[in-house]
Amino acid sequence: MPAQIYHLIAFLVAAVVVLWTTPDVKKIGIKSGRVDRPSDRKVHQRPMVRLGGVSIFLGTIISLLIVWWLGGFGNLTPEKEWQIWGVTLGGFGFFLIGLADDLLNLSPLTRLLVQIIVAAGAWKAGVSIDFISIPTIGIVDLNWLSLPITVIWLVGMVNAINWIDGLDGLAAGVSGIAAVVMLLVSLYMRQPAAALIAAALAGASLGFLRYNFNPAQIFMGDGGAYFMGFTLAAVGVIGLVKIPAFTAVILPYLILAVPIVDMSAVILARLCRGKSPFIADKRHLHHRLLNAGLSHRWTVLFIYSLTLWVGSLALAIAGIPSGIAYACGATSLLSYAIWRLWKISRQS
């Protein structure tokens, strides 16, 4: 069976599992009273079940297990197969942290400490940034710096995805687009292990949009956001950062630029105001777009267009055939979205 078939199977199985299980998860959440209630900082106006991450996690893991059972890991080296299980176990750990936060409302310090521990475990399992490639200098071995740099990257992306999960369909759509781009880049760069995980996550994320896009029927909660954030970051590490080329090293940061820049800007703004970076506020990009007069849907679609644009730039930089054409198309779409944003803001 051609290797690409396994990636298609991973995508479709994940999407089907999410579509099938989400209504049941919603029913369980309603019966147990596990709902996210409206507040001044939140956009939704009625209590919402926030356990959708259970479906996303199940869809991703079941699809990978089915591909493994079908022999889809047969062409992988032992190191690459171990990396898949390392990412899976790390994703399970972060999912449990998020689920515990959804159910028990953990303190910020407790969350951060446990996240660091799980990220260090993933580093030990091979999800590690071992070197960086610098133009004119070459490959620089990180040695002991590998652990803190990897932990910062993994924990940072987990929280970046969680922080943009403020509007219906936003985190799921951004993650789905990023996962599809990582899938294409990983396939082109012959990184089948990373591509399999990206395919499964893309199917789970985009399948979840059926119930999460505005008006949402269910939220993914911290469990879903933590799992998707870690998995995206880990795919970037095992599929791209380990390739000794400068263009490959920068691709994960470009693909995930929207949540990275949003989180960085919010942290900087909070610190400049003398406030803790962990105290939630309404300074995220989606809050600013809503304040500019955009509707809920238009705000989400605009951020989708931003994510698609940086993803298309990554395709072009990676040298994928027609990558430049994709970048031109995405630039046109973003230009139209910016024009709409300007027009709506003038009317409000």
From TrEMBL:
The source's domain of life comes to Bacteria
- Topology with regard to the membrane? Multi-pass membrane protein
GO CC entries? plasma membrane
Query: Membrane-spanning regions, if any?
Result: 6-26, 47-70, 82-100, 112-132, 144-163, 170-189, 195-213, 225-244, 250-272, 298-318, 324-342
What is the annotated localization of this protein?
A: Cell membrane
Does Transferase count among this protein's keywords? yes
The record, for PROSITE patterns, names:
MRAY_2
Biological process terms in GO annotation: cell wall macromolecule biosynthetic process; cell wall organization; lipopolysaccharide biosynthetic process
> Could you tell me one molecular function GO term of this UniProt entry?
metal ion binding
What cofactor is this protein dependent on?
A: Mg(2+)
Where do the annotations place Mg(2+) binding?
A: N162, D222
User: CDD domains under this entry?
Assistant: GT_WecA_like
Q: Which UniProt keywords apply?
A: Cell membrane, Magnesium, Membrane, Metal-binding, Transferase, Transmembrane, Transmembrane helix
Q: In its UniProt entry, what is this protein called?
A: Undecaprenyl/decaprenyl-phosphate alpha-N-acetylglucosaminyl 1-phosphate transferase
Taxonomy, top ranks, is: Bacteria, Bacillati, Cyanobacteriota, Cyanophyceae, Nostocales
